[in-house]
């Protein structure tokens, strides 16, 4: 890496999409952002926005993009058109979001053949995510074999959980043989938000205990003590925990046996039910919190039930993680719902005054893109809204790693 190389391209490769951002780590600024969607279809679309230079602006191209290799080549072309190409000497690394790193990958890691093989071995515990992440890494390595490719793992932040939190109470030999344990997800978001919450309080992360509530279509909670995760709501898969847009969250495992025996449903059918037809959409037919709130205002009882179930589960986790941490300095709401749905924040905190939690209604209702406190002045525990920035977190981790390695 040259001394002037301060840019990191962040790639988030999904099964049929690639999200990307190019950041300059000199100041954390974004140079370009984009999305390739519907890869492999005739209706593929690439949306690219340059945020710097004379060519700043948004462009779109439509038409078939056959695979991830073609998608990344198209991204490279768009970046080159803005003078930000993959061949730039200012590019220090490409950072990849990888959903599952198991127990081995606890830090950002420069990808080599051995690392890639281990990520492949983890496919059985992340069959919907790791294959697409692997495809993105392979394609990027082919395009720039000389450039460090850094994997940043969603599970890494949660590897500090004690065994008492990470273990399921099942036969140990069976669990170990099949890698069955609680891994947690959304780790880059929880890491970023917990650290930013400490900054908002004017304290160092190691001096703060935070409950982070990442509330989007997927949702998870974490208990962070002194900058280290000690518990999180998602488990072996992202299905466990909070009620989500289409996922059930916590459920009696025997429900699956009951559906097999009584309803004659197959394992795959139950998988689809719990992951794609449950949660808010299963309860009321909508997974958009804005639409649910609109329906509640019109007196819709199913929407009200869905909201109440969602909030009940959220409060249970707030209380549980308060008990786990013993002392809580702040609760931080983040992600699409957490950042934008004031009624969710209000309902989640309501009635928890004995725990030192109280909102300032005016601050809670205020719209802002900035990290901010919304707690009442007399509250013992701070309540914060902290917009997450997983791309910046991935870029920071990747750049720090390659910068440190360059000094060896």
Short description:
About 40% of the residues lie in helices and about 20% in strands. The protein has about 400 residues and is an alpha/beta fold. The radius of gyration is 22 Å and the shape is globular.
Per-chain topology:
Blueprint: E1 7-13, E2 17-24, E3 29-37, E4 45-50, E5 57-62, H1 68-81, E6 91-98, E7 109-110, H2 113-121, H3 130-143, E8 149-153, H4 163-166, H5 172-177, H6 187-200, E9 209-215, E10 219-225, E11 228-232, H7 254-262, H8 267-276, H9 279-284, H10 289-297, H11 301-325, E12 330-334, H12 335-340, H13 342-349, H14 361-365, E13 372-373, E14 382-385, H15 390-406
Parallel strand pairs: 1-6, 6-8, 9-12, 12-14
Antiparallel strand pairs: 1-2, 2-3, 3-4, 4-5, 7-8, 9-10, 10-11, 13-14
Q: State the helix count.
A: 15
Indicate the proportion of strand residues: 15-25%
Contiguous runs where pLDDT drops below 50 for at least 5 residues? none
- The count of DSSP E runs of length 2 or more, i.e. the number of strands, is 14
Radius of gyration: 22 Å
How are the strands of the biggest sheet laid out side by side? Answer: 5-4-3-2-1-6-8-7
Report how far the terminal alpha carbons are from each other.
12 Å
Mean pLDDT: 93
Class based on secondary structure composition and strand pairing = alpha/beta
The portion of residues assigned to helices is 25-40%
What does the largest sheet look like? Answer: 8 strands, mixed
Can you write the helix and strand succession as a string? EEEEEHEEHHEHHHEEEHHHHHEHHHEEH
Shape: globular
């Amino acid at each position: 890496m040259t001394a002037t190389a301060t840019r990191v391209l962040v790639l988030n490769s999904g099964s049929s999409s690639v999200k990307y951002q190019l950041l300059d780590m000199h100041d954390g600024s974004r140079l370009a952002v984009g999305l390739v969607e519907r890869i492999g279809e005739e209706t593929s679309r690439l949306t690219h926005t340059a945020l710097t230079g004379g060519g700043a602006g948004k462009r779109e191209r439509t038409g078939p993009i056959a695979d991830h290799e073609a998608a990344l080549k198209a991204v490279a072309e768009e970046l080159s058109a803005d003078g930000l190409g993959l061949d730039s000497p200012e590019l220090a690394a490409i950072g990849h979001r990888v959903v599952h790193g198991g127990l081995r990958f606890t830090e950002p890691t420069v990808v080599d053949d051995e690392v890639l093989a281990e990520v492949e071995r983890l496919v059985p515990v992340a069959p919907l995510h790791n294959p697409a992440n692997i495809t993105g890494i392979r394609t990027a390595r082919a395009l720039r074999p000389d450039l460090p490719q850094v994997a940043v793992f969603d599970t890494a932040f949660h590897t500090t959980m004690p065994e008492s939190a990470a273990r399921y109470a099942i036969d140990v030999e069976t669990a170990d043989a099949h890698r069955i344990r609680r891994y947690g997800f959304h780790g880059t978001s929880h890491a970023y938000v917990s650290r930013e919450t400490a900054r908002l309080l004017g304290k160092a992360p190691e001096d703060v205990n935070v409950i982070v509530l990442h509330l989007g279509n997927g949702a998870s909670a974490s208990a962070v003590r002194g900058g280290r995760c000690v518990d999180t709501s998602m488990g072996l898969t992202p299905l466990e925990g909070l009620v989500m847009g289409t996922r059930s969250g916590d459920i009696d495992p025997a429900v699956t046996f009951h559906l097999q025996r009584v309803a004659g449903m197959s394992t795959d059918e139950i998988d689809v039910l719990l992951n794609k037809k449950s949660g808010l959409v299963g309860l009321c037919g909508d997974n958009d919190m804005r639409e649910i709130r609109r329906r509640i205002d019109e007196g819709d009882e199913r929407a009200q039930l869905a909201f109440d179930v969602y909030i009940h589960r959220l409060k249970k986790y707030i209380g549980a993680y308060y008990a786990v941490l013993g002392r809580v300095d702040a609760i931080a709401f983040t992600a699409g719902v957490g950042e934008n749905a004031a009624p969710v924040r209000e309902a989640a905190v309501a009635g928890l005054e004995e725990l030192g939690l109280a909102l300032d209604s005016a601050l809670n209702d205020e719209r802002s893109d900035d990290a901010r406190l919304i707690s009442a002045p007399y509250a013992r525990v701070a309540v914060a809204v902290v917009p997450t920035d997983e791309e910046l977190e991935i870029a920071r981790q990747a750049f720090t790693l390659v910068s440190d390695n360059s000094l060896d």
